[in-house]
Structures are given as structure tokens and as C-alpha cells.
Design goal:
The chain is α/β, with parallel strands linked by helices and 230 residues long. The protein is 36% helix and 20% strand. The mean pLDDT is 91.
């Protein structure tokens, strides 16, 4: 059985009992970073009191650049009847994280799998924004190049013509966020923008652009950033 497991996006206490229980019973765990996965597994014992049902976890490094390389080994293990968990560094696997190729092969080969839901920075940021959330579109990571970003914004404008109440959620780098905000202000002057950083962590912070808490030149925005366009 392949378990696709959503893990906390910052606060370890957001782990579900079901996710913790399955992680502690699975011998094979696919993860982007074996060190941080090992730390999380240790914290789960302290937090939940659920002791591992296996003598030792086999942590398999599985990140974007190694997906294709690792796939044959993983499929062989699953076909041999082994239980396996797939986690990302934070949040749900496959959402701008590794796992798509594995899921496609598992489905095509009839390998049994299930999804264990968990925290999502996309939904958390959307609710934080206070914007209408009946319909929204997730854009993934925004383009790094200005020209590509402008093309994406043109598409957003066209979508807004058809779906005026649609919100848009995206990930952005702290190194580019201020430049991105200036472009959005210029290209989408009628739309409010919310920046949510370090969600569920100690330094969680929400900035509302074009509203009360407007960014200043001195404002520092670090860490994991999720951006919401009204």
C-alpha cells in the first residue's frame, strides 16, 4: 500500500493522529530530506505517544531531481507488498512537490494507494486573506522572469472577466516578493493582495496590500511565502 500523507506546514501539533499512526507503522518512507524527516518522526513519538511499530524506518531520499531515477526501485518495493509512505518537506505531496510520477505509475499499474489529508498552506493562506473563497485557482510558484510573470497576469485578467469572484493563490520567493508586489500593484490596481508568511509557525505574519497594513520599504518579508490575489 502506498500512503500519500500530508504533514504539518510549520507547527508539528497540526499532524493528525491517523497520519502519525501510519508513519510510525511504515517501514519505507519517501521524503525530500531524510534529516528533517527523521527529526519529525522523533517528535511524533514525544507528541502523540505512538511508538514505531517497525524496528527502524527506511528513509528514502525522494526529491524532484531524483524522481525518475528512484521510480523503478520504489515500484519494485510496492509490488513486493511493502507499505510505503510519501511525504514532502511540508504540506501535501504533489502540490508543487514530488510525487506526480509515482502516482501516475501506481494508478497505471493498479498499485493500491490512499491519501491521508493534512495541512495546506494554500487553503490556510486563502482563509487568512478574508477574500471570497468559493472559487479560487492555485498558480503554483510564480514565474521567476518578469516577462513570464506579466503573461501570467494577462491570463489572470482574462479569467477575472469570466469569473469576477475568483481568487488566486501562489507561492513566491522572499527574494522576489517586493518586486512581484510592485508589478501586481501596477498591473492589477483594483485587486487587493495578501501575503502570508511562515504560516502556523512562531513568526506567522499576514500583510494586506492596498489595505491597512501596506508594505513599506523597510518591511522585511522572510521565510515561506504564500500570496493571495483577491
Amino acid at each position: 500500500m502506498l500512503y500519500i500523507i500530508g504533514t504539518p506546514i510549520g507547527n508539528i501539533q497540526d499532524i493528525s493522529y491517523r497520519a502519525a499512526s501510519i508513519l510510525q507503522s511504515c517501514k519505507y518512507i519517501l521524503c525530500e530530506d531524510t534529516r528533517s524527516a527523521d527529526i519529525m518522526l522523533s517528535k511524533l513519538v514525544e507528541l502523540t505517544g505512538i511508538t514505531p511499530k517497525t524496528k527502524s524506518h527506511k528513509l528514502i531520499s525522494y526529491y524532484k531531481d531524483r524522481e525518475m531515477e528512484k521510480l523503478p526501485e520504489i515500484i519494485d518495493l510496492l509490488n513486493a507488498g511493502n507499505d510505503m509512505c510519501l511525504i514532502s518537506e511540508a504540506g501535501m505531496p504533489l502540490i508543487s512537490d514530488p510525487g506526480y510520477l509515482l502516482m501516475k505509475v501506481a494508478i497505471n499499474e493498479g498499485i493500491e494507494y490512499t491519501v491521508i489529508p493534512g495541512p495546506s498552506s494554500v487553503l490556510t493562506a486563502l482563509i487568512h486573506s478574508g477574500y471570497k473563497s468559493d472559487t479560487f485557482m492555485f498558480l503554483g510558484f510564480l514565474p521567476k522572469k518578469k516577462g513570464q510573470l506579466l503573461k501570467l497576469i494577462d491570463k489572470i485578467k482574462k479569467i477575472k472577466e469570466v469569473f469576477p469572484n475568483n481568487s488566486f493563490v501562489a507561492f513566491e520567493s522572499p527574494h522576489r516578493i517586493k518586486e512581484t508586489i510592485e508589478i501586481l500593484r501596477r498591473e492589477l490596481p483594483e485587486n487587493s493582495v495578501t501575503i502570508a508568511r511562515e504560516l502556523t509557525k512562531k513568526y506567522e505574519e499576514v500583510f494586506r496590500i492596498n489595505q491597512k497594513n501596506e508594505l513599506t520599504a523597510e518591511t522585511e518579508i522572510k521565510g515561506e511565502i504564500t500570496l493571495v490575489i483577491d
